[in-house]
Amino acid sequence: MQALNTLSTPEEKLAALCKKYADLLEESRNVQKQMKILQKKQAQVVKEKVHLQSEHSKAILARSKLESLCRELQRHNKTLKEENMQQAREEEERRKEATAHFQITLNEIQAQLEQHDIHNAKLRQENIELGEKLKKLIEQYALREEHIDKVFKHKELQQQLVDAKLQQTTQLIKEAEEKHQREREFLLKEATESRHKCEQMKQQEAQLKQQLSLYMDKFEEFQTTMAKSNELFTTFRQEMEKMTKKIKKLEKETIVWRTKWENNNKALLQMAEEKTVRDKEYKGFQIKLERLEKLCRALQTERNELNEKVEVLKEQVSLREADVDLAVQVLQSCTLNSHEELGTPTDMEQGIQPDVESRMANSSEKTVSTSPVSGTETVD
């Protein structure tokens, strides 16, 4: 309004208002275009935000699942470690107990073998001594038989001399034979008993050998079980190494997901900041649009008022033109009459004609001034 007050004529004011109105229309159209572009961008940003929120929720779910899996793996690893440690301790304790029991049994077997060896050596010595005794008895028996043969020969030679003593000698021979048979039977019994003892010792040796073979088999089985336990321990260790590798991979993946989540959060924060800035710009544009709409309404009211004034002026101009035409016709008729009467124009006529011409020029200027008003209607 201050800029319009600076102008002098209403035509200039109308031209300035029309220019201002056209500029404001162009600005409003540009603002509307920008508004549409910003609304599209906002819709895209909202869609991206929803997509990012869904991805964020998915990432959170995946992270929670990964954390639960990691916790379960850690618990499983702890339980496996504890079970492996317990199994290793139990196997070590069993191995120690088995080795101690095996050592005790070996010591007992060695002690029994030593005792049996000592007993066998004693029996061998007794058998050797018995054999020597038997040899001595056989030699004595042979000597006795030789002596008896000699005695028989001597007795045969002296049979006639010792007929009286024959019965005595026969009785003595019978007694000696009985004693010899008794001794022989006793020695045979001792020999059979010694043989039985030797057989029993041999059987005991066979049984001890069987026990040794059984203990050796058990020791081999124990070694196989130890080897199997070592293999199981190695397999558990390999599985533990695999699980540690998997845990490292999962930790790397969790780090990657965490970085993605942080980047998404940063992007969301940036988008939120941009949205706040765009919302502020949108509010500013809305305020400008409201102001422009108010100005447009004020300009429209002013334009309507000016149109009404212009119509009033047109009516006045048309009335004045009609009056001027009538005056011109009257003046022309008067001048013609005076020319006819006098033949020369007077000074008054010369003065009237410029006035008429000036009025016609003013009327033409007014008609020209009304032409921009029609132009304003086209602009509207």
UniProtKB/TrEMBL annotation:
<dbReference type="GO" id="GO:0051726">
    <property type="term" value="P:regulation of cell cycle"/>
</dbReference>
<comment type="similarity">
    <text>Belongs to the taxilin family.</text>
</comment>
<feature type="compositionally biased region" description="Polar residues">
    <location>
        <begin position="360"/>
        <end position="380"/>
    </location>
</feature>
<keyword id="KW-0175">Coiled coil</keyword>
<dbReference type="GO" id="GO:0019905">
    <property type="term" value="F:syntaxin binding"/>
</dbReference>
<dbReference type="Pfam" id="PF09728">
    <property type="entry name" value="Taxilin"/>
</dbReference>
<feature type="coiled-coil region">
    <location>
        <begin position="14"/>
        <end position="253"/>
    </location>
</feature>
<feature type="coiled-coil region">
    <location>
        <begin position="282"/>
        <end position="323"/>
    </location>
</feature>
<dbReference type="InterPro" id="IPR026183">
    <property type="entry name" value="Taxilin_fam"/>
</dbReference>
<protein>
    <recommendedName>
        <fullName>Taxilin gamma</fullName>
    </recommendedName>
</protein>
<feature type="region of interest" description="Disordered">
    <location>
        <begin position="339"/>
        <end position="380"/>
    </location>
</feature>
